[in-house]
Amino acid sequence: MQYQPASSHSAAIIGASGYVGAELSRLVQQHPALSLFGCYVSEHSSDAGTLLSDLYPQYAHCLKIPLQGLTDNEKSSIKHQADTVFLCTEHNISVALAPEFLEAGLKVIDLSGGFRLDAVEDYPPFYGFEHKQAHWLRQAVYGLAEWYPHEIAEAQLVAVPGCYPTASLMALLPLKKAGLLKSSKVIINAVSGVTGAGRKASLATQGAELSLQAYGLFEHRHTPEITQQLQHEVLFTPHLAQFPRGILATLYAELNDDTSDTDLTSAYQCYAEQPLVRFKKLARPAIKDVVQQPFVDIGWHRQGNQLIVLSAIDNLLKGAASQAIQCINLQLGLPVEEGLL
Amino acid sequence: MQYQPASSHSAAIIGASGYVGAELSRLVQQHPALSLFGCYVSEHSSDAGTLLSDLYPQYAHCLKIPLQGLTDNEKSSIKHQADTVFLCTEHNISVALAPEFLEAGLKVIDLSGGFRLDAVEDYPPFYGFEHKQAHWLRQAVYGLAEWYPHEIAEAQLVAVPGCYPTASLMALLPLKKAGLLKSSKVIINAVSGVTGAGRKASLATQGAELSLQAYGLFEHRHTPEITQQLQHEVLFTPHLAQFPRGILATLYAELNDDTSDTDLTSAYQCYAEQPLVRFKKLARPAIKDVVQQPFVDIGWHRQGNQLIVLSAIDNLLKGAASQAIQCINLQLGLPVEEGLL
Amino acid sequence: MQYQPASSHSAAIIGASGYVGAELSRLVQQHPALSLFGCYVSEHSSDAGTLLSDLYPQYAHCLKIPLQGLTDNEKSSIKHQADTVFLCTEHNISVALAPEFLEAGLKVIDLSGGFRLDAVEDYPPFYGFEHKQAHWLRQAVYGLAEWYPHEIAEAQLVAVPGCYPTASLMALLPLKKAGLLKSSKVIINAVSGVTGAGRKASLATQGAELSLQAYGLFEHRHTPEITQQLQHEVLFTPHLAQFPRGILATLYAELNDDTSDTDLTSAYQCYAEQPLVRFKKLARPAIKDVVQQPFVDIGWHRQGNQLIVLSAIDNLLKGAASQAIQCINLQLGLPVEEGLL
Amino acid sequence: MQYQPASSHSAAIIGASGYVGAELSRLVQQHPALSLFGCYVSEHSSDAGTLLSDLYPQYAHCLKIPLQGLTDNEKSSIKHQADTVFLCTEHNISVALAPEFLEAGLKVIDLSGGFRLDAVEDYPPFYGFEHKQAHWLRQAVYGLAEWYPHEIAEAQLVAVPGCYPTASLMALLPLKKAGLLKSSKVIINAVSGVTGAGRKASLATQGAELSLQAYGLFEHRHTPEITQQLQHEVLFTPHLAQFPRGILATLYAELNDDTSDTDLTSAYQCYAEQPLVRFKKLARPAIKDVVQQPFVDIGWHRQGNQLIVLSAIDNLLKGAASQAIQCINLQLGLPVEEGLL
Predict the structure, then answer these.
(1) Using a CB-CB distance cutoff of 8 angstroms, which residues of chain D are in contact with residue C199?
(2) C183 lies in the same domain as C139
(3) Torsion on CA atoms B118, B122, B127, B133, rounded to nearest 10
(4) Which residues are bridge partners to A11 per DSSP?
(5) Residues in the active site (chains A, B, C, D) (predicted)?
(6) Domains identified in chain C, total number
(7) C245 touches chain D (CB under 8 A)
């Protein structure tokens, strides 16, 4: 695909009022090759008609953009005039909305979980709704940008990975692909900031209720996402912390016998030229080092066959919005980090 | 009044599911001279029927107490069998509930703002409702325990002070009573933890929304409360911080000419025998030093006629629940700190 | 052993100026059966001569106790007049100090790691010093209060467990003793507040440097402590968080085939009568629920043979000072929770 | 002054290992018109020889820059080859270093307090050292970028304002210059994150010691800085909070009689075209909205003659490093926000 001249590619953002939507709006807004077609919320949302910068004073200088209700008229104008739709909507809303934009010929980059799993059968148990878009689910490409650049470049529908799966898969895929993982289950202990729960009133995320606590034991919907992508059994346990942003995943894996340090180094060599992966052998990534940054920080430590990989991201960026930008960069033939550094 | 034998005095707590209600339930529960008659919530609350310890796992060892819906039957049994009712309800609910318990002869200790202001006319502008209990409002004694011990001891209805007023008045009343304050307005800059906003879902108190921000400028309802009690004009500005508990008030006052250090020392001498006031001339009270403690920490600093007083409390304890216990201690003729240290 | 009349048992605290020492001083001070003989710091410490309450304004009401330099004279008076010495000193200092008090006939309760490991050979690799007290190391009883009450009651020298080992062992020992653990290694992912690093100036614990980060991978000295006590291989990975107090351990264990829920319930039944263990099958313990409390909160979750146990403590209390009080309570024939609730 | 072609202007940073130095290194590094000549620390610093990115893993992608000891050789090469020196050194070190670079004809932008006050006599009482550079102190231009653009553009020596003074003066100067302030003292209540204390080991800034506490009452060195610049008496009280970055100043001022809202609006109209000032009449700036941003957020609220102005900045950016960039932009004839958005 040819390089597109600046601002020629027009992107609409639906569900722009959430934490991810606002980050994405900012990134699209400042992207040299994208123009922001518009920011949309549900027609019935009380946010419709307000400025995005009223919800996010931190972006008062750049997001004086009206949040528009997604009426039929607006949908129609998006279909006729925009090139790509980013969906930052609830899972089931994404599934409902995506097909009409796809059928109108637009590209859709979905940041929900609506098109991440392998099959419609996975949706009722993990997402609690019937998924009626088996066709589009099959078409969807998993948007882990460093791993599927060609597929993403060609895809009409991209399912941007979940935040925990991004932190986990970026750490584990090099090992899996290199055949270094023993068949035993990988344990993923992850801690997330509270923006991961979304921008909404909830007693569980009231400031005074937060400290550090596990949740979703054995049943979090990111478990099948990781398993399907990794093709390896994992035990994933998320924890909610009191800080606003960031995920730290501590991953415990067993290596095949005779795995050398050199094998590990070679495996992670896949990231050598990746501008948004900061890999360092003995690094101990920290939440503070990735907050408000589009990177994933990775380090590994071993003792015999026992491997620990540490992986940190900003859940709203590499775990959502900046990875979505990586995907559209790939589609536009741009460097993957365009507009992100 | 005679000392009451242990557990002879029976107290019911209405509105027990909130942050203040839970602290108060714990304090009553462990108080040597009180027995907890019962913990109540609104008849229609979804918390009715659950254990208080299910809402507050930190008190799993001591608050396995059912939250009962406040039905007519329950009200009747409180009236016939309990001695004191603590109201931890919304302001207007307190105003509605207090009279029937008072008329049944019970003591009422109200932790809301329903009986704190001087006159019913103050309620519509600051609390947004018509106050129809002028009689009881006149009867109410302001429960600032160190200042009105005799009045509280005799009162049938006690209005426990607000959290900000407690921090402010404890710092300023010694100066006012000693005649050291110039007539110019006192500036009160205060910062509170998020429990001050109550236990409820709200976007403004979502963990990710918190940092440090002023609110209620010129119009917070604690302004008239402080002014009326202090009989001095104040400019009170609260701020919401991201920590769970605690208030730090930084108070700026002008001293009358010729006020000596000795005058100041004498003024604060009123606290010399008060077990729950930790006064120290040049102290710089910190939030961490008062959290989960029933104390108010006070220090002063001056330069010429300019005085700064620093005052810190736990908003849920000295700012609410433990001060309510001080009030009932006074009523029972017990040491003011009974059950608190 | 006979019950001791109140205040008859005299305890000296050496290393009282640290976070653990201060908590312990407070607990001894308010304990109905103990009298605080004195609080000591190194003879050369700049803290010598100051009041403990000057270092800990939160305890201004109860710890107006001078920190005395531990001169030879002071040692001598301790030996002649005190009954028990609590050591809150550095590991090697404890090893150096304990024998002389033991030989003088006192009981010693050591809160350092100086007497926790099985053999002197374990010390150079994990603690970096030669341990020359093999005799006393053999005499030392591991002070995990719920597990070794009789041994502790009889011991002259008690080694109070480390904070992470306490959280870990309290969760795992019931399973191990009941024979439910498969031989595969147990993974312990733990997160601690910054008081765990001790009260000292250090760039790594400067407020702005903290967020969430793993440390001590594969080499933390609590690994051999846990392994030796559990008699089971573990992989222990600590993390430093930005909150002040508390540890949350997330433990991943494999159960033997055919382990039923009933087996698990039976195993944890050992805690049914323990007043300082708050066990609940599906509980998800949170840091905020244990801070400033002497409890360990434990819950378990399973899926097939995979078990996750969650365990939370206050690192300064159940992880140190309050557990030391449990030990002395056992020695004095008092209820284990005496002075703690 | 003419626009300089990209990368033609070469800047050395001395004291680059601190929090401010690192931010400034990043900003210079990514600035389109600057080239980073080198990053320096004291010859004897243990940081000499390490990479800046080793101290700041969050900047691992952009600051793989060696910290060089500032030997005589290095000084000489800076003098001969660099155009501007940024000093992020201790106050007295700046005073010692600046003259030799100035005399060599370089521009010096000093981020310490070494050249901020009016006269050498102010230094012993507020900075604790004799200031022997009266000549250069007179030459120094106060680098409050929005207020003294022409003077800064022409200056050889710029004294970048302190963090608290920046937050305070940006809020107050419009009022003062418009003649709206009554002569009574302005009260400045300010709260700062812990990076304000600098990157160094210190017990007072250990994570567990932080909460919210006033300090420097009546004697902070930013008081004379504000007073001299504002030409108005102020009472400035700083507080240390537990968050890493950001300052919120709440300013209490009295307006002259007959000051209208229009007068206030007109006064702040001076910022209408300023890209790094986000002014909004009733705004309530929050720390979270300015962190990691080069803006100052300002809002005002009044009641009669009483005015409250709220002002928030990132102490490391608008309070130091990004304001230093504004200054060099002015000197190079670039837009003031060049390289900052």
Answers:
(1) 203, 206, 208
(2) no
(3) 60
(4) A36, A84
(5) 163
(6) 2
(7) yes
> What CATH number has the domain bearing residue C133?
3.40.50.720
- Asked if pLDDT for residue B167 goes beyond 60, the answer is yes
Residues C264 and C183 in one domain: yes
B95 interfaces chain C, CB cutoff of 8 Å? no
Return the residue in D233, D250, D282, D301 with the most chain B beta carbons within 10 A, the one to mutate for interface testing: D250
| Chain centroid to CA B295 | 12
Length reported for chain C: 341
Q: Mean pLDDT across the stretch B130-143?
A: 98
Instruction: Give the other-Cβ count within 10 Å of A39's Cβ.
Output: 27
DSSP state string for D126-143: HHSS----HHHHHH-EE-
Q: Do residues A316 and A20 touch, judged by C-beta distance below 8 A?
A: yes
Helix, strand, coil: what percent of chain A each, to 5? 35, 25, 40
pLDDT in tens, B74-98: 999 999 999 999 999 999 999 999 9
Residues B154, B182: one domain? no
B267: CATH: 3.30.360.10
Question: Of the candidates A213, A235, A284, which has its C-beta nearest C252's C-beta?
Answer: A235
Catalytic residues of A, which ones?
163
- Which pLDDT does position B108 carry in this prediction? 98
Nearest to A189 among C189, C213, C302 (CB): C189
Residue D308 lies in a domain: yes
Q: What is the DSSP letter of B270?
A: G
Question: Where on the phi/psi map is residue B246: left (φ > 0), alpha (ψ -120 to 50), or beta?
Answer: left
CA D82 – CA C258 distance, rounded (Å): 75
A199-203 contacts, C-beta under 8 A, 24 or more apart: A199/A17, A199/A18, A199/A19, A199/B203, A199/B206, A199/B208, A200/B203, A200/B206, A201/B201, A201/B202, A201/B203, A201/B206, A202/B201, A202/B206, A203/B199, A203/B200, A203/B201
Nearest CA to CA, how far is C97 from chain D (Å)? Answer: 26
Active site (annotated) includes residue B163: yes
Query: Is 0.90 topped by the overall pTM?
Result: yes
Tell me if B155 is assigned to some domain: yes
C-alpha to C-alpha distances, B159 to B323, D231, D307, nearest whole angstrom: 11, 47, 32
Q: Where are the alpha helices (DSSP H) in C82-162?
A: 91-103, 123-127, 134-139, 149-154
Full residue range of the structural domain in which residue C153 is found: 9-160+320-331
Residue pair B69/B117 in contact by the 8 Å Cβ criterion: no
Check if the interface score ipTM surpasses 0.90. Answer: yes
Residue D38 within any structural domain of the chain: yes
CB environment C158-187: b (16+ within 10 A), e (fewer)? bbbbbbbbbbbbbbbbbbbebebbeeebbb
Give domain status of residue B340, yes or no. no
What is the C-alpha separation between B141 and B119, in angstroms, rounded?
A: 13
CB-based contact (8 Å) between C18 and chain D? no
The mean per-residue pLDDT over the stretch D225-248 comes to 98
What pLDDT, on the 0 to 100 scale, is given for residue C4? 42
Distance CA C58, CA B206 (A): 29
Tell me whether C199 touches chain D (CB under 8 Å): yes
Interchain proximity B217–D252, CB inside 8 Å: no
Say if residue B255 is in the same domain as residue B327.
no
Query: Are residues B186 and B126 part of one domain?
Result: no
pLDDT (tens digit per residue) in C272-322 = 999 999 999 999 999 999 999 999 999 999 999 999 999 999 999 999 999
**Domain check: are B184 and B295 in the same one?**
yes
Chain D residues near residue A285 by CB distance under 8 angstroms:
57
Task: Examine the domain organization and report whether B196 and B94 are in the same domain.
Answer: no
CA B286 to chain D, closest CA, distance in angstroms equals 5
Shared domain check, D169 and D146: no
Residue C81 parent element (H or E): helix C72-81
Residue A249 pLDDT > 80: yes
Contact between A194 and B200 using a beta-carbon 8 Å cutoff: no
CA-nearest residue of chain C to D196?
A: C208
